[in-house]
Amino acid sequence: MAETIIKIDLSKSPYENDMIHNRWHPDIPMVAMVKPGDDFIIESYDWTGGQIHNNDSADDVRDVDLSKVHFLSGPVGVEGAEPGDLLVVDILDIGAFENSQWGFNGFFSKKNGGGFLTEHFPEAQKSIWDFNGMFTKSRHVPGVEFAGLIHPGLIGTLPSKEMLDEWNTREKALYDTEPDRVPPLATLPYADTAHMGRMSGDAGKAAAAEAARTVPPREHGGNCDIKDLSRGSTVYFPVYVKNAGLSLGDLHFSQGDGEITFCGAIEMAGWTHLRVSLIKDGMKKYGIKNPIFKPSPIKPQYDDYLIFEGISVDESGKQHYLDVHIAYRQACLNAIEYLTKFGYSSAQAYAILGTAPVQGHISGVVDIPNACATLWLPTDIFEFNVKPNSEGPKKELSGDVDVPLSPDL
């Protein structure tokens, strides 16, 4: 049996655990050391550190403190790792705790984080998803069940001081172009809620003031939300500091491509079984500055899809030039409108796209002025036929159940 080198207690705050951190900084001490070839298990909180509860109210999503996230387990040091190497991480297995067989999906209030479709869903909503082995369904979104592809939404190595400074400079420059925007253009360092692992005292306070927030993906990996990083996958991470400093968290039971609700997967606490090795000087040998990965050979076998297209024309009819972000948004909105014809509320349809094994594709970026993005919706996840036919759509749901909503205060 592999050793569990990072353990957590879901009944306690992650701030009480010095093997957890919620910022990126090169000086955060390693909490465990492993050797190339070792395999081990890491336990993780859900990304909010237990702020969201298994109930029928979205108040906790509305009131969540996003300055605290994400709570990561680590960093784990790998003996012999040096800047310029590649850290090879095999995800051998991953799962939910036996006493925590549920997860949540949420839409954040526009005033507190927002999301991909925040103009259409500006207030907080939450759905709870129960696990039954490899399958999940929700009391808030009836008529749908699917197999999960469990993965860490966030996994990466520690940045160097030079890289941290680069992140802060470029993100502050973007933020300053529209500092009053809601939601903001970037999440800047914020020391008040920083958890710096085993750093303390004046050194910890100084590091917290410049430590990078964990919200975006960056060159070291981070919050990439790639659903195919499941059991059996391999990730090749650039190493920027001595011993690499591997951390992970933000486990997802399932997610659609794009994680479009922002709290956009089925978020969960759980454990991950990993194995590590090194490729010396691998960054230079392979020309790598961002992680690359080999996907899992195990995935839900859905092979019948409805594919929704979107182009670079926004909701007001304004033409944009090869804008993939707008094109994918239109594909998502088209899918949501379609599902409402079967009795789903718009919020339920949105939750399905965020949690089910939906595929997102960039289908064209050369045919001016419109980029074309597509959303692939598996039809077999539904308990009824959602394909078009000559008789038209049949309302399958009564409408007496919806995703709980909590208005802004």
Number of helices: 6
Distance between the termini: 50 Å
Indicate the mean pLDDT. 97
Q: Strand-and-helix sequence, N→C?
A: EEEEHEEEEEEEHHEEEEEEHEEHHEEE
Largest sheet: 13 strands, mixed
Shape estimate: globular
In which range does the helix fraction lie?
10-25%
What structural category characterises the helix and strand content? alpha+beta
Low-confidence stretches: none
- What is the radius of gyration? 21 Å
Strand residue percentage = 25-35%
Report the count of strand segments.
22
Could you describe the 3D structure shown?
The chain has 6 helices and 22 strands. With 409 residues, the chain is α+β, with helices and mostly antiparallel strands. Strands 2, 3, 5, 7, 8, 9, 10, 11, 12, 13, 15, 16 and 22 form a 13-stranded mixed beta sheet that branches. The N and C termini lie far apart (50 Å).
Question: What keywords describe this structure?
Answer:
409 residues; alpha+beta; 6-stranded mixed sheet; 22 strands; 15% helix; 31% strand; globular
